[in-house]
Structure formats: structure tokens, C-alpha cells
Amino acid sequence: MHPGDHRPGARRARRHRRGGGARRPRDGRGDAARAPGAAGAPGPRQLRPARLPHHDGRHGGRGEEGGGRGARPRAGEGRGRPGGGRVTRFRTLCVAGSPSRGSHTRALVAHVGRLLERRGSETSLADLAELGLPPSHPGHYWSPEPHPVARAREFIDAVRASDALVLGTPVYHSGYSGLLKSAVDLLPRDAFEGRAVALVSHAGGPRGSAGACEQLRQVVKALGGWAVPLQVSTVTADFAGNPAGDFTSGRRTLDEAGPVHARCEELADQLAVFTRAMRGAGALEDRAGAAA
Questions:
Q1: What residues have CB less than 8 Å from 285, skipping those under 6 apart?
Q2: What integer pLDDT is reported at residue 251 of this predicted model?
Q3: Which spans does this entry mark as compositional bias, Basic and acidic residues (predicted)?
Q4: pTM reported for the whole predicted model
Q5: Does residue 118 lie in a domain region?
Q6: Domain range holding 114?
Q7: What confidence score (pLDDT) does residue 171 get?
Q8: How does strand 196-202 pair with strand 164-170?
Q9: How far apart are CA 221 and CA 199, in angstroms?
């Protein structure tokens, strides 16, 4: 061995001389990017924001608003999971129902949204902690006229423009949040009709963490939707990043080395499969064209 062969540059040169080149992981990212909390690892790619109030594009990762990867793909084109063929794209609205900014619920909903993007979804995030929606009122619910508040109208329009939804809630007294309930009460009775819905929740401890999702199943049914069989409930130990109660930086992420990540993968699979089955390729393309 040459005295200088112990240097990293010499090792790389030997690999290239053998024709192998530098090894790359299958997803095209380095180990630091895949290891939560690793030194120098970039933060999680945030979802492209929904066209809703109080989103300033800082969380954008794709499309026009986020300025990340260029123009939005045409409806009916795209890729599913890595290694898959061309699939019909669909639109998913992910709703984070926590009143706290940078919450565990938001991180969980965003994580599922990113997994859906890998399966051909154009995904938007509606964080209710930032939207400032008005309280619901029965007079608006029964009125044939559009809601008088612009923020409420845009939220309703975002739901109607979606092909699928992810509803996320914190668990308060074994139930879902009042903020999410108030937002859902702004919607017309058929708002979820023909749509598959994924349900996720977060609780500080395991007691009663799944009950909120079971309650939301009744709400989804009342609005004409269909909740997929699987649901995901998390606790604080499932996350990497800020300690509990620190909602300032929004860097909390789901630990991809933990068991919940695999369950989120399965949840994303179910939502993608059932959305395509319920809507059909033609219906998805028609909806995308109408929303353009």
C-alpha cells in the first residue's frame, strides 16, 4: 500500500478506478439525511402549503408556492412508491387540528403527507393553529349562500378540491380537539362524499390515544366520507427533536427508526389505494382540471 492510500481521497480514487464509483443509498440521500437528529442532517422537507390564509411559503417543498422542484405535474401523471410505474395522481389535504404551533400533531400529519407524495399525491397542509378560522354557526351551515368569511370559504374550497384527506388531532380528555370540531362544522354535509380519509392522533401518553380516531370515524361517515381501516396514534416518545412542550422551532419530526413509521407507511398505502379505487382515473383527472 502506498503511504498516502489511507487518505479518503485515495480510497475514492481506487473505487472509481475499479469502475464501481461511490455507493449511493437507494433513495438518493446520505445516511445523515435519513438519520433523525444526525449532526449536519437537513430538516424534514415540509409540505407544499395549501392556498389558505396565513401560509407564507416557508414550509414549501414543491410546486409554485414552495419554489422547490419546479412546475406541478399534470394530472394523471406521476410516480408512486420508489420502483413503481406511472400512476394516477391525486390531491390530498392534510389537516392538523392542534391549537399549538409546531405541535406533535402537525409533525405527524406532515409525515403522512410526505409519504403520500411518494405515492403520487399532490399534498397540501392546513394547520388550524395558523389559519384563524371563524367559529362555526348553524345559520351559515344551513344557508345556500357561500360563507361570509373569506378564510372559511377558502378552507371549504380546499376540502372540495381534494380527492382524499388526512385528519390529525391531539387527544384531549380522550377526545379530538375542539379546534378540529369547529373547522369540520364549517363544512357542508356532503364535504367528504366519495373521499377516503386517513385518521391520526397524538397523545402525551398511551391511555385513550386511539379513542379520538374512533370518534372521528363517525364524523367522517356523517360527511359522506370513508375512513380507511388503519389509523395511527402516537405518543411523545415516538418523536425526535424538541422536548415536550417546546413548540417554538417546529423542528419536531417522527422518528423513522421507530415502529410508528412503518404503520404510517401502511396508512399511506391504504389511503392511496382506496382513493384511486373510489375516484377512478377519469374522475381524478376531471377534478384536477376543474380546480386548475
A1: 75, 76, 88
A2: 60
A3: 53-67
A4: 0.68
A5: yes
A6: 86-138+149-292
A7: 94
A8: parallel
A9: 12
The HSE-up count of residue 200 (CA atoms within 13 Å, CB side) is 34
* Mean pLDDT by groups of 10 residues along the chain of 292 residues: 46 44 39 36 38 35 32 38 61 96 92 95 95 87 84 95 97 94 94 96 80 96 96 89 48 79 96 91 56 60
Confidence (pLDDT) at 62: 32
Contacts for 86 with CB less than 8 Å, ≥ 6 apart: 77, 78, 79
Report the number of distinct structural domains present in the chain.
1
What is the DSSP track for 32-53? Answer: HHHSTT-TTPPPPPPPEEPS-T
106 contacts: CB under 8 Å, gap ≥ 6:
96, 98, 125, 127, 129, 168, 250
- Length of the chain in terms of residues written: 292
- Decide if 120 contacts 88 (C-beta within 8 A): yes
Give CA angle at 227 (274, 115), nearest 5°.
Answer: 60
Q: Name the burial class of residue 139, with classes exposed (0-12), middle (13-18) and buried (19+) by CB atoms within 10 angstroms of its CB.
A: exposed
Q: What is the pLDDT of residue 87?
A: 61
Q: What is the DSSP letter of 148?
A: S
- Domain-embedded: residue 62: no
| The pLDDT value given to residue 258 | 80
- Grid-cell match 395549501, residue found: 50
Nearest to 201 by CA among 133, 260, 158, 274: 260
Domain with 130 in it: what CATH number? 3.40.50.360
